[in-house]
Amino acid sequence: MKLDQYQWSHNPRGIHNTQAFLKINHARYVQAHLGWIKLVAGGNEYLGDIAQLNANGVTPIIRLYNPKFGTSPVPPGQIELVRQYIQAGARWFEFYNEPNLQFEWPDDQHPDYNDQAGSVAPMMDHWLQWAEQVIQMGGYPAFPALSETVGHSDDVTSWINVLMRYLAKTYYDRFRAVADNGLWVATHPYFYNHFYQEAGHPKVPRQPDDENGAEGGWHFEYPYDPITQSDDPGRSVLGASASAPNGDPIGLAGMGYAFMQRFKELFGGVGVPVIGTEGGITPVPVRGSLTQLDARFPGYNWRSHGEATLACFNWIATQAPPWMFGLALWKENDYWGDPDSEGKGAKEQLAAVQRLTDAPPVLKTVPSLAVLDGVGSAALITPTVPGPGPMHGTPDFHCLFMSADLNPDWFFDSAHVYWDRYQPALLTTLDLLGQFPANKSLAITLITTPAQRLALLKTIEDHAPNVFIDVITADSAEAIAAAFQLRVANGKRFQ
Predict the structure, then answer these.
(1) Taking a C-beta distance cutoff of 8 angstroms, is the pair 124, 73 a contact?
(2) Is 319 helix (H, G, I), strand (E, B) or coil?
């Protein structure tokens, strides 16, 4: 597939809808000359809008909402909804949303890029299956949008590295096939005041009252802009610099740069579309105030926010990398001054809406670039993945392993009903994991104490990274018995 073969409006301007189920206002999108609408949908409520959106030159992006989804597989009913939206004329779809944030996980699960067995593997396994299904139906699947945050478990640069390397190690050929048949990347670029317009010199910015969105000299390439590079030479989206040891992708195209860097290195990729499915210059302005979160750059006010918003879309169309297709601003009720979610007093329509209304859009010309050109370094490491292959549905083998600090009699005394029903094989040493054939899958029910849990998970990952791990963490016979009794009562082999 080539980059210019994706079907879309070629207009980078977009907006994110207020929330699922709310009726959309087509006149607004035509008024502001929009080319994208990100629709969070609860179900089929927007099926009847797709044809009109396309006719108006507004390309829909569909995310079917799943609260606190964690690493769950896509529900069968959602696949059927995707099919219906594709038949209605939609092509662009998202699945997981900001999986590096606890908010998107069940309360008893915690995302951690260091936890391959519990976080990384199941999410990428399920995502890849979903992406292949979307492609088979004629749609374009999005690589999950990560929250562009910095912290221990949610650090976005660590997440993108771990996810891409897992795909390279485990699914090199399958991921390349997805990339070459409709993959795109969803990002959430809330880029604050990481932009400026030159005042006659690349390192001298205009002040907010002097900015003009219709004129040139704008810089949205953070962290590769002249001011940032002067302040912190060598700062990049993934590489370490003096002031950004983990990299810094907090710009309009930052996560796009990050993905493409790993895509090229690992898979021989050239580029797939990148769309900011929520984001923008944030927080939205308040009249009479100046917002300046990063003191290296000028702040923005009510008027200049509108100028910069217009300018960012023009920059995407004319100066951004060819893979940058657009941005859906967060979100419609903020920009049009709708009442908030509790129905309280209406807010004021932002100046950006009128600025977009008054200026015709600049369309993006996309070059005919092949998505893939080369093989990437991962082609050399894929065959060395030890142990069994990934699990799809029911495992070919099911084993049970207990940590050494537990008494094996506990299991046979307290969980014989589970044993009788599911008949797992008793595994006495984890050294045997590498002996399972690569064309078969394996699930391990791991019974461990809290003290041994992390060490055992690490050992399993090292010996057989594709193993599905079903963990029971307990330090008493009673707790183990209760866990297995609940599974039998619910008819669940795995929790």
Answers:
(1) no
(2) coil
- Is the distance from CB of 86 to CB of 63 less than 8 angstroms? no
Query: Taking the model in full, what pTM does it have?
Result: 0.78
Long-range contacts of 478-485 (CB under 8 A, 24+ apart): 478/414, 480/410, 480/411, 480/414, 480/415, 480/447, 481/414, 481/415, 484/414, 484/415, 484/417, 484/418, 485/415, 485/417, 485/418
At 184, give phi and psi (nearest 5°): -140, 170
**Quick one: pLDDT band at residue 403, thresholds 50, 70, 90?**
confident
Q: What is the pLDDT of residue 180?
A: 97
User: What's the CA gap between 73 and 42, in Å, rounded?
Assistant: 17
- Alpha-carbon distance 105 to 68, whole Å? 4
- How many angstroms from the chain centroid is the CA of residue 293? 25
Long-range contacts, 379-385 (Cβ 8 Å, 24+): 379/172, 379/268, 381/168, 381/169, 382/168, 382/169, 382/172, 382/173, 385/169, 385/170, 385/438, 385/465, 385/466
Residues of the chain with pLDDT > 70: what percent?
97
Alpha-carbon separation of residue 278 from 281, 339, 358 (angstroms): 11, 20, 23
Summarize pLDDT for 299-325 with one digit per residue, the tens: 999 999 999 999 999 999 999 999 999
Instruction: Give the span between the Cα atoms of 210 and 304, in whole angstroms.
Output: 8
**Given the structure tokens 């799809």, which residue do they identify?**
392
Question: Which domains, ranges and CATH numbers included, belong to the chain?
Answer: 3-378 (3.20.20), 385-490 (3.40.50)
The whole-chain average pLDDT of the chain stands at 92
Choice between 332 and 404, residue whose per-residue pLDDT is larger = 332
| Secondary structure of residue 151 in the 3-state scheme | coil
Q: How far is CA 250 from the centre of its chain?
A: 15
* Secondary element (H or E) of residue 473: strand 468-473
Torsions phi, psi for 125 (to 5 deg): -60, -50
Name which residue leads in pLDDT, 452 or 48.
48
Place of tokens 């010309």: 365
Neighbour tally for 119: CB within 10 Å: 24
Sheet holding 196-201, edge to edge: 204-205, 196-201, 218-219
Alpha carbons 483 and 474: distance in angstroms, whole number = 9
| Pairing outcome for strands 196-201 and 218-219 | antiparallel
Q: pLDDT band for 382, please (50, 70, 90 cuts).
A: very low
Least confident of 25-39, 88-102, 384-398, 465-479: 384-398
